[in-house]
Design goal:
This protein has a single domain, classed as 3-Layer(aba) Sandwich (Aminopeptidase). Helices cover 29% and strands 39% of the residues. It has a seven-stranded mixed β-sheet with strand order 1-2-3-4-5-7-6, with helices on both faces. Strand 4, helix 3 and strand 5 form a beta-alpha-beta unit. The chain is globular, with a radius of gyration of 15 Å. The structure holds coenzyme A. The site of coenzyme A has 18 residues, from strand 4, helix 3 and helix 4. The site of coenzyme A (COA) has 18 residues, from strand 4, helix 3 and helix 4.
Length: 150
Amino acid sequence: MKIEIRELREEDIEELSRIESESFSMPWSPGDFRDLLSREYCMYLVALADGEVAGCCGLTNICREGNIDNVVVAERFRNQGIGHALLERLICLGEEAGITAFTLEVRVSNETAIHLYEKFGFVSEGIRPRFYEKPAEDANIMWRRKRFAK
Ligand SMILES: CC(C)(COP(=O)(O)OP(=O)(O)OC[C@H]1O[C@@H](n2cnc3c(N)ncnc32)[C@H](O)[C@@H]1OP(=O)(O)O)[C@@H](O)C(=O)NCCC(=O)NCCS
């Protein structure tokens, strides 16, 4: 399978919304995705698997802190390294843009995502109680901070 990572385009939105709906209880709408395309401080990436839209992830740059959101891969493409490829590119582009610390939140029960984030050096720095709805659940707040040489 050939995996390509590139920036989000208008033509990806319909399929990404479908992937959101199968993956999250409170999915983003096509309008939410369209808003992103116009925001300079947001970076959104899409993964194509043999040319098909397979997933996405996003980064908001707030004063050189990168907030990662909407990491998602379509069910039929999971566990084939696409999530890893998306995050690798996103973090690389974020670092090129001067981001020194990345953060994200994840449901405490989401072992697959937590495993993936830990592979990139994210560590848990706190719990936000009942952050999520449908169903209510705590969020694990994870950070990946650049280690500066002494
Ligand atoms: C999280 C998600 C994006 C990962 O995408 P993916 O393309 O499957 O990720 P990868 O294939 O690169 O890596 C998955 C890793 O999780 C591991 N994994 C799979 N099931 C697991 C489980 N139940 N518990 C722990 N790890 C698990 C895989 O073995 C793999 O790790 P490895 O490379 O060390 O073997 C995908 O599962 C998804 O879209 N989930 C639904 C949406 C979601 O929860 N997004 C995160 C919101 S914070």
